[in-house]
Structure formats: C-alpha cells, structure tokens
From TrEMBL:
Domain of life where this protein originates: Bacteria
Entry keyword annotation includes DNA-binding: no
Entry's transmembrane regions: 31-48, 55-74, 80-97, 117-140, 146-165, 172-194, 200-220, 232-249
Record's keyword annotation contains Transmembrane: yes
UniProt organism field: Candidatus Falkowbacteria bacterium HGW-Falkowbacteria-1
Entry keywords, A to Z: Membrane, Transmembrane, Transmembrane helix
Stated name of the protein: Uncharacterized protein
Signal peptide start-end: none
C-alpha cells in the first residue's frame, strides 16, 4: 500500500475510533491506546522509508497533540462539538504528517511547511493540554502542584520540539527551554488560584507560550527587534483583554 493511501486509511481509522469513544465513553482508554499505536505505526512507516531513527524527534508532537485533544474533549458535554473537534484534529494531523514527509525528503521544502504546522500543533497542544489540566480541578480533588508539574512537562516538550524543528543548536535549545520553563512555573501554579474558567486559563498559558517561542525564534534568526516585541506583546495583550472582558468567569 502506498504511503499516502496508508496515511488516509490510518487517519480514518483514528477518527472512527474517536467516534466510538464519543458514543461509548467506557471505551475511552482502549480507543486512546489504539490511536497511539496507530500513530506509532505511522511514525515507523515514515522512518522505515529511509532507515533514519533521528527523524522520530519530529513525530513526537503529533502524539502530544492528539492526546491533549482527546483528553480535552472528555471535559465537553455536546457530542456534536466533540465530533467537530476530533474531526478537525484528525484533519490537522493528516496535514502535519504530509508536511513531515515533504520535510523529510524535499530539502527545498524544509523552511516552508513543517515549522508552520509544528508551531500550530505546539500552540494547540499547550491550549488543549493546559485547559484539560486546569479543568481537572473542577471534577477531582488533586494537589495543584502535581497538576502544575504535569503542565510544565507539556510546556517544556512542546517548546523544545518547536525550536528543534527550526534546526537550532541543541545546547541553546535546552537553555531557552529551561529558561522558559522556570519563568512560567510560578504563573502556571498561581492561575489555579484565579477565578478563570479552564478555557481562559489555558488561553493565557498558550498565548504566553506563543510569545516566548516567537521571541526565541526571532532571536535565533537575528530578527528580534523592538518593533516585533512591541507588536507581539500588543497582540497578546489585546487578545487577553478581549477574552477576559467577554467570557464568564467561574
């Protein structure tokens, strides 16, 4: 079976599995396990094309994305909305893998597609994952410190992965990833104490993630200017202001 046709079949299968979980919630963990195994199989097929295991690093982010999307959907009530989210997630996943193939085999395509999809997946992973983690405090009693540590793991891996795909130095990547992690740790914990619903909390974290990642990438490209910093902060501030004014707090 050709790789493109195989991708289509695998992604359709993932969506069908998600649909089963929506209709029969008792199958949640079985569907989650099966979906992750399919993603591992897709990654294996891509790597097997050139026998290059180092490319596995580029295929970690889709696993985080689809899992965060799946867990976030478990907080929702409307089945129609859940179906729309999961369908969109599978569609985005297909385009990510398609872009990954081009990145892998077409040298001239390496600065066009995968970095964009990686940044988008990173932002969505952070939003969905952090929203789910903040939402857990609504339903179960668990120490906020444990939830914060889990959130920081998601933030660190997403941040590191996106800088890595931009093909910058490993040491510099680790330095900025840990700097971002330690800078955001106090805020991540303190948001549990604020009267925001979990979507607003997740949006705050994801916008800060977006700004920090943009600044680091601009720095590596030697394009970090006062103008870009100002516009970036104004955009993030405007989105946060509109969100805080328009949404209902818990």
């Amino acid at each position: 079976m050709k790789i493109k046709r195989l991708f289509i079949v695998c992604h359709l299968l993932i969506f069908l599995l998600f649909s089963v979980a929506v209709v029969k919630p008792t199958f949640f963990y079985w569907v989650l396990l099966s979906s992750n195994l399919i993603l591992v199989f897709i990654s294996y097929r891509i790597i097997a094309l050139r026998s290059d295991k180092s490319f596995l690093r580029y295929l970690i982010l889709p696993v985080f994305f689809i899992n965060s999307c799946f867990f976030y959907s478990s907080l929702l009530v409307s089945k129609l909305f859940i179906f729309l989210i999961l369908f969109s997630a599978v569609l985005l996943l297909y385009y990510y893998y398609k872009s990954a193939l081009k990145y892998y085999f077409i040298e001239s395509d390496r600065k066009k597609n995968l970095p964009f999809w990686s940044n988008l997946f990173g932002f969505l992973t952070v939003f969905l994952g952090s929203s789910f983690i903040y939402g857990l405090s609504y339903f179960i009693k668990i120490n906020n410190l444990i939830l914060t540590l889990l959130l920081l793991v998601i933030l660190f891996l997403s941040f590191f992965q996106n800088i890595f795909i931009e093909r910058y130095s490993g040491r510099a990547n680790l330095f900025f990833s840990f700097l971002f992690l330690f800078s955001l740790a106090p805020l991540s914990w303190s948001i549990f104490l604020l009267p925001f619903n979990y979507n607003v909390s997740g949006l705050i974290i994801s916008l800060i993630y977006y700004s920090a990642l943009s600044f680091v990438i601009f720095y590596f490209k030697k394009e970090l200017t006062v103008k870009k910093i100002k516009y970036n902060l104004l955009f993030v501030g405007f989105v946060l202001l509109v969100t805080l004014i328009s949404v209902k707090w818990r």
